[in-house]
Design goal:
The complex is a heterodimer. By secondary structure, chain A is mainly beta. Chain A has one helix and eight strands. A five-stranded antiparallel sheet of chain A has the order 6-5-4-7-8. In chain A, strands 2-1-3 form a three-stranded antiparallel sheet. Chain B has a single domain, classed as Thiolase/Chalcone synthase (Peroxisomal Thiolase, Chain A, domain 1). The chains are: A mainly beta, B alpha/beta.
Chain lengths: 138, 382
Amino acid sequence: MIAPGRPKPKPTPETKHFWDGAKEGKLLLQRCGDTGKAYFPPRPFSPYTGTRNVEIFQASGRATLHSYVIHHRPVPGFTPPYAIAVVELEEGPRLMTNIVECEQTPEALVLDMPLEVVFEAMDEEISLPFFRPVKEGK
Amino acid sequence: MLSRGEIAIVGAAESTRIGAVPEMSQIMLHADAALNAMAETGLKPADIDGVACVGPMMPQQIAHYLGITPKWVDGTGVGGCSFMLHVRHAAAAIHAGYANTILITHGESGKSRINATPRPPEPESLNGQFEAPFGPFGPPTLFPIPVLRYMKTYGVTHEDLAMVSVVTREWAGKNPRAMFRDPITVDDVLNSRMIAYPFRILQCCLVTDGGGALILTKSDRAKDFPTKPVYILGTGESVETTMVSQMKDFTSSSAFRVAGPTAIEAAGIDRKDVDHLMIYDAFAHLPMYGLEDLGFVRRGEAKDFIREGHTRPGGKLPLNTNGGGLSYTHTGMYGMFALQESVRQMRGTAPAQVPGAKISVCHGVGGMFSASGTVVFSNERP
C-alpha cells in the first residue's frame, strides 16, 4: 500500500491514456508511425519525426535496472533508505520508478538485473508503475 | 558575424559577502553584486542599456530596482548555466547593435531563503507526473541518478569519484572566500554522511547565499574602463530535457556535447591551448562528464586524468580553481560564480592564480544535465 504524502501526478489530456492504463494494470507506451520506435513520456506525436501518426500499445512490462540512487534522508511519503530508479523497458524507453519487493541496498540492486512491472494504487484515480525483480526460473 | 574577441567583459563582481548572508534578500543580492560591478567600471545605472537575469518577470524587477531603462532584456532561465547563455546572447545583441552596455545579474538566497524562488514541480508537469511520484527530493536525489551507469560503463570506482572532491578542496584551501578550506582525503569523502548512494555529503554542492554581476560591452570601448578587459572568444549553448530519467545517454550529456564544442570551435582554439577550466560541479561526477564531453580527455579517461593530478594546483589543466560548487559557494545557480572565477583568472587577480593563464573555458550545467552553456575567454584579443 502506498504511504500518504507521496506526490500525486495529475494527468493532462496528453497523458490521460497512460494513467487510465495504469489504473487497469497496463503499462501503455506509444509508437511512432514513421519509425516504429516506442517513446515515453506520452505525447500525441512522435519525438523522432514529428508525425502525429502514432499509436498506443501495451508494453510487455519487462525491463532492466538502468541506474539509481538510494536516498537516505526522510521525505514525506517515503521511508529511507529507498531507491529512486530508472529502468529501461524492453521496448526501449526508460522511466523513473521505485524497485519493490527488493532490499534497498547496492548489493540487492544490481545494474541490468531483470525486472517486471507491478502497479500499486495511490487512490481511485492514480496507480503507479513500480518494478520488482523477476523471480528465478520465470 | 560576431568575431572572436569583439565583445569583452569590463565589469565583474560578486556580492560583497557570500556564504550565509541573512542581511540581504534575494533581489538585494542581485543589486549588491551589480553595484560592485558598476563601481569597478565607473558606470552608473543610466549607462546600462541592457539587462539579463534568470527567469520570468526578473529582468523588469532588476531593471526597476536598479533604476535602469533597458532597450534589450533577456530572462533566459535554464538553471545554473543561464548566465553562460546570457553572455552568449548579450554578445550577439551588442554585435547587432541592440544594446551597448549589458548588465547580467545573479542573486540567490539559497541558504537563508529570504524572498527565494520556490521551485516545486507542478503535479501536471511531466516532471510532476513521471518523476516526482517516485521520491526525488531536490538535486541530490536527481543529479546523481546516472552515476552508477557511468561507473559501470567505464569502471569508475567510488575512490575515483571521491578524488574530485579532494582536488577541488585543495583549490578551495587557497581561496580565503571559500566556505570549506580544510584539506580532505578520499577516506574523509567515503566516510562522510550518505545522502543519496553513491553520493555522500562531501560529493554534493554547498547551499549558500550570494550574487554576481557581469558587464559586457564592445572590446573597442574596453580601454575606457579601468578594469582589464576579458575577451569573449566563443560561446555555446544547448538543452536536453528537464527529466534526468529521459537523458539519452547516462554516461554523457547531449547538452554538454553541443555547448562545449560549439564554444571551443567558435573560439578557434585547440583544447591543448586551454590554461584554465571551470566545469560547474554541482556534484562530483560533473567534472568527469565535462572533461569527456568537451573533449579534453577520451571517454572514460576523466577518472585517470583527475587521479594523475592534472587538474590539481600545478597540474596541466587547473580545474575549478575557486574551490567550485563543492567547496567555494553554491547558491543554487552557481554558473555566475564559475564565470567570475574565469574572469579573475584572465585578469590575473584570482586567489589561486594560474601563472600566465591566457585562455579560460567556463562550462555550465543547468538543471540535472538539462541545459548547458559554455564561454571561452582570453585576456588577449585575437
